[in-house]
Specification:
315 residues; mainly beta; single chain; 43% strand; elongated
Length: 315
């Protein structure tokens, strides 16, 4: 499943966020991949690098309740987390973790079943919390979670994890910066111990091995006045096409095509001459270089009556 959203920072730059949730049948975990694009530049005022803060937070429902105790694992040297070096480089190196969550042993809570609810990432989390769920999202300075671990039961627990990612500025205002991160959410401690999170890699698709230049990709109709035959039978519209290029879609893109009747006699009537089967089409991920793809979400209603040209508008 793919979700798309956007945020605008204080300088007015839009960050586009694609979040992909992936589950493979039989596993007791799923992955969350974040791909963030940004046109952030060094232009004044307030130019320079930024930190993007990603938070994952859930009440630790395990079966019918949230009762359990906190757990952390997979310590890594603090130098792995570059945000720590940014805000606290003068103090001794701390211990950071790449796994945080809640577990419940048999008979620790009113629910006698053992259970697990874990978050995991590559490298280390910038901060975390495994504590009663009402306060799991409490933050201190520098946008950090509390780093609190409540490791005794019974408490109604929640788990939160935070990763700060450096956003280097673009020196070319036409370029788009790409950032990626993966979180894993799992429900079996033994299985999660063997899961290795891997941040998504942007593809190397240049013609000579270089990374393709990241810019806004254009999507337009291939013709401003497409046309096709009505015919005797119902069929998908012909002649309506999109022209896409030049660039790379890392993820499938969802595009809405709107059909609007034109007022006046002699024009196409919805339900009589055409029907919108679905309002959105999916453009597969991949390389596009002025490629033309058909639009097939509109059905033309055929008949054996000879009519003049019938028109309608789409956008």
């Amino acid at each position: 499943m793919v979700a798309q959203s956007s945020i605008v920072n204080g300088r007015g730059f839009t960050y586009y966020i694609s979040t992909t949730y992936t589950y493979v049948a039989g596993n007791k975990y799923y992955t969350i991949d974040y791909i963030v694009t940004s046109p952030e530049t060094t232009a004044t005022p307030f130019g320079g690098e930024y930190w993007l803060h990603i938070y994952l937070s859930e009440p630790s429902f395990m079966g019918a309740n949230t009762c359990g105790r906190g757990v952390i694992g997979g310590p890594t040297p603090a130098v792995v987390d570059e945000y720590y070096n940014f805000y606290n480089s003068s103090t001794p190196i701390a211990t950071f973790y790449n796994m945080v969550g809640v577990i419940r042993s048999a008979s620790e809570c009113a629910d006698p079943a053992a259970a697990t609810h874990l978050f995991k990432t590559d490298g280390a989390f910038s901060s975390f919390a495994s504590r009663p769920f009402q306060s799991r999202d409490d933050k201190s300075g520098f946008y950090l979670l509390s780093n609190m671990l409540v490791n005794s039961a019974p408490f109604d627990m929640g788990v939160a994890a935070h990763k700060a990612i450096n956003v280097p500025p673009n020196f070319n205002s036409d370029d788009i910066q790409h950032l990626t991160k993966q979180f894993v959410v799992g429900f079996d401690a033994a299985e999660m111990a063997g899961v290795v999170p891997v941040d998504p890699e942007l593809p190397n698709v240049g013609s000579f091995g270089q990374t393709i230049k990241h810019q806004h990709l254009t999507v337009n109709f291939n013709s401003t006045t497409p046309e096709g035959l009505e015919g005797d039978d119902d069929h998908a519209i012909t002649g309506l096409e999109l022209k896409i290029g030049k660039g790379y879609f890392y993820l499938p893109q969802i595009l809405e095509i709107v059909a609007t009747p034109i007022a006046g006699p002699g024009n196409a009537v919805p339900g009589t001459d055409y029907e919108v089967i679905r309002q959105k089409i999916i453009i597969p991920g991949g390389i596009y270089w002025d490629d033309v793809i058909p639009v097939d979400n509109i059905k033309i209603i055929g008949n054996n009556i000879v009519d003049g040209n019938r028109k309608f508008h789409w956008s």
